[in-house]
């Protein structure tokens, strides 16, 4: 499964390599390629894709295989029902994410 975007809600979905599943790292901010919206987390654990505003609620850092919110210290978490939210980092497999580079364009 991969981090995907449905409307303004990040979800966990089967990989289809669509633009809504492409996120680029801009500093410490994850920006969705299709919408140019930033992954945003709040203090209650809700995660959305919002207009990029440079706030710390849009800053995420890698801690091993986890994506941790700079604002809350919570880990990005996905579950089997496609929900994505931020929880206390506890080492659960649902908190493991892999950042990969997109394939090089064909020449």
Per-chain topology:
Blueprint: E1 2-6, E2 9-13, E3 23-26, E4 29-32, E5 37-41, E6 47-51, E7 60-63, E8 66-69, E9 75-78, E10 84-87
Structure description:
This protein has no helices and ten strands. With 107 residues, the chain is mostly beta strands. The strands form five sheets. It has a two-stranded antiparallel sheet with strand order 1-2. It has a two-stranded antiparallel sheet with strand order 3-4. A hairpin with a 2-residue loop joins β3 and β4. It is globular.
In brief:
This protein is mainly beta and 107 residues long. Helix content is 0%, strand content 41%. The strands form 5 sheets. It has a two-stranded antiparallel ribbon.
The value of Rg in angstroms is 13 Å
Uncertain residue ranges: none
Structural class: mainly beta
Q: How far apart are the termini? A: 29 Å
Helical residue percent band: under 10%
- Note the run of SSEs as H and E: EEEEEEEEEE
Give the spatial strand order of the biggest sheet.
1-2
Largest sheet: 2 strands, antiparallel
Shape: globular
Count the helices. How many? 0
Strand content: 35-45%
Average predicted confidence as pLDDT: 81
Query: Could you tell me the number of beta strands?
Result: 10
């Amino acid at each position: 499964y991969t981090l995907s975007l449905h409307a303004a809600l990040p979800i966990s979905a089967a990989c289809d390599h669509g633009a809504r599943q492409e996120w680029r790292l801009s500093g410490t901010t994850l920006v969705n390629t299709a919408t140019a919206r930033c992954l945003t987390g709040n203090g209650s654990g809700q995660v959305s894709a919002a207009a990029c505003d440079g706030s710390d609620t849009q800053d995420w850092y890698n801690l091993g295989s986890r994506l941790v919110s700079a604002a809350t210290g919570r880990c990005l978490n996905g579950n089997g029902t496609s929900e994505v939210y931020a929880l206390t980092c506890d080492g659960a497999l649902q908190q493991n994410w892999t950042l990969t580079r997109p394939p090089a364009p064909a020449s």
